[in-house]
Design a protein that fits this description.
Blueprint lengths: L1 E5 L6 H15 L11 E9 L15 E3 L2 E10 L14 H7 L5 E7 L19 H20 L2 H11 L3 H8 L7 H11 L10 H15 L2 E6 L6 H11 L3 E4 L2 H12 L3 E2 L8 E2 L7 H18 L4 H12 L3 E5 L17 E3 L5 H8 L1 H5 L1 E6 L4 E3 L9 E7 L2
Parallel strand pairs: 1-4, 1-5, 5-6, 6-7, 10-14
Antiparallel strand pairs: 2-4, 3-4, 8-9, 10-11, 12-13, 12-14
Helix pairs in contact: 1-9, 3-7, 5-6, 6-7
């Protein structure tokens, strides 16, 4: 699973990315990892199950603070998009194509209105951030349309002549967009499309592109720079104008808090509504003032900086993933003595058998049953797993 970070230049996207990937450097033994250029590891937060067993976990990956487990996710930082990206403006096509790796998107906008569509500073916070939301969706829709139109006329003629099952044929043609037969069936029904594919003109293909984009690239909006004067009013207006998941956010504040925690100046857990001073005497007046501002204008006003919140929303809200812990009814430790060392993020609808294959192909192939470790009850291979389940797999070997 990958979460794509998108937005125009100067929206604070790079700061968001840095803040999201810094935590483990500061407080965990598992080091920050740069997977490739523009990629890194962030973390989503889930209530750890160790408290259910009155024990303390030892994560192999990620970390756990006061019963809150931070599980690694891949973040894809896509370079700033500008209007006309789908036409190749900027680095448009290259970065739009990179986005196809992402399962969900976090659109980081400058909610203060201090930068225009090109990321340039504007006077008096005069830019309307609503434009950023509509522009990005238009760019993504046009990108989907471009991919749909590629070879479409030849494909449509073949379908019209051979009369194959429409859902299956179209899904195969658009497989590069992660379109499934089931999804295509829903889109055709929702748009009430004619079975004569030759009648689907460009306006219809654009409607299809929009529906497929919404389904395959669910999106949350991180309303960044919420701490800038006037940004709060814009945020309240956007909530009325759009049905999107809008999260107030200050990536700069989050980065400052994580850096301060890394230097052991404060105690701070990502996503918290407060922090604790540890070595106030080591702080300069400038640092004290900055932390005071963050506490009053961001944490007390909005409950958090929003960075951790929007990551959690992307994984658990948009994608509806669940966190599953491998464990044993009689033993929670691995061969090295680490308790509850692993936590896997699994898609909705995951069964006990799916989880067995996630652990190892041999475990799936030799599956006999699973055990719900909390209840100590056996469950079958079709049993649907829920968030924070602890599962033991019993095999024939």
């Amino acid at each position: 699973m990958k979460i794509g970070l998108v937005g125009k230049p100067s929206s604070g996207k790079s700061t968001f990315f840095k803040a999201s990937t810094l935590a483990e450097v500061a407080i965990a033994p598992y080091p920050f990892t740069t997977i490739a250029k523009n990629e890194g590891v962030g973390f989503v937060k889930v209530e750890c199950v160790d408290k259910d067993f009155s024990t303390k976990c030892n994560p192999r990956f990620g970390y756990c603070i006061d019963g809150r487990r931070f599980v690694p996710v891949e973040l894809l930082d896509v370079a700033g998009l500008v209007p006309g990206a789908h036409e190749g403006k900027g680095m448009g096509n290259q970065f739009l194509d990179d986005l196809n790796q992402a399962d969900a998107l976090i659109h980081i906008i400058d909610v203060s209105g201090s930068t225009n569509e090109k990321g340039e500073q504007v006077p008096s916070l005069s830019y309307d951030p609503a434009n950023d939301i509509t522009f990005l969706e238009h760019e993504l829709d046009m990108w989907y349309l471009r991919l749909i139109e590629k070879g479409w006329e030849k494909f449509a003629r073949a379908v019209n002549q051979e009369k194959p099952e429409l859902n299956k044929a179209v899904a195969k043609q658009l497989s590069s967009l992660r379109v499934t037969e089931k999804l295509m069936e829903k889109v055709i029904q929702k748009l009430n499309l004619d079975s004569n594919i030759m009648s689907w003109d460009r306006s219809i293909l654009l409607r299809i592109a929009t529906e497929l984009r919404i389904a395959t690239k669910p999106m949350a909006i991180a309303c960044n720079k919420i701490d800038v004067k006037g940004a709060g009013g814009n945020f309240e207006r956007l909530k009325k104008e759009f049905q999107h998941l809008l999260v107030p956010c200050s990536a700069e504040s989050e980065l400052a808090l994580r850096e301060a925690a890394r230097h052991e100046l404060i105690k701070y857990t990502p996503g918290d509504e407060n922090f604790e001073m540890i070595h106030e005497e080591k702080l300069s007046d400038k640092q004290k003032n900055a932390l005071s501002f963050i506490k009053k204008e961001v944490l007390e006003e909005y409950g958090s900086t929003g960075v951790q919140n929007v990551l959690d929303i992307a994984v658990f809200g948009l994608l509806k993933y669940v966190a599953i812990f491998p464990g044993g009814v009689n033993k929670l430790e691995d061969q090295h003595g680490n308790r509850l060392p692993d936590c896997f993020l699994m898609p909705p609808g995951t069964t006990a058998l799916d989880f067995a294959f996630k652990l190892h192909t041999d475990i799936g192939n030799h599956f006999i049953k699973a055990l719900d470790v909390k209840s100590r009850r056996p469950v079958g291979k079709e049993h649907l797993l829920k968030n924070r389940d602890v599962i033991e797999i019993v095999t024939s070997k």
